[in-house]
Amino acid sequence: MIDLGTLGGPFSGGRAVHPSGQVVGSSWTATHEVHAFSWTEAGGMSDLGTIGGRNSEAAAVSAAGQVVGESITAGGDFHAFSWTQTGGMVDLGTLGGTSSFAVAVNARGQVVGGSTTAGDAELHAALWQ
Description:
Blueprint: E1 8-17, E2 23-29, E3 34-40, E4 44-49, E5 52-61, E6 67-73, E7 78-84, E8 88-91, E9 96-105, E10 111-117, E11 123-128
Antiparallel strand pairs: 1-2, 2-3, 3-4, 5-6, 6-7, 7-8, 9-10, 10-11
């Protein structure tokens, strides 16, 4: 068993692991926010940040190291995100509603999850390409 540590707070939890050993999940920070993280044996735990709000959580990692999950926006809504080493965290948007989430990503970078539609009346499956 390996202790992956935290981002300065008292709790962390892994959600997915890449065959190379990269782990993604979420951790409390020293300021009591919850942030998505990526952990590697060589680099330790890295804070992936947010898309403007206080919290984020990683849900999956692709073969290329692309991380997806959800983050709170500056306006307080949940939005799906994609994170890469070169591009950082990117808001994937919604299907016209106020919220979305990502649960998986494949080797081609396609992301799946769900999103509310206009007026937040319905929740639909979503594919970001």
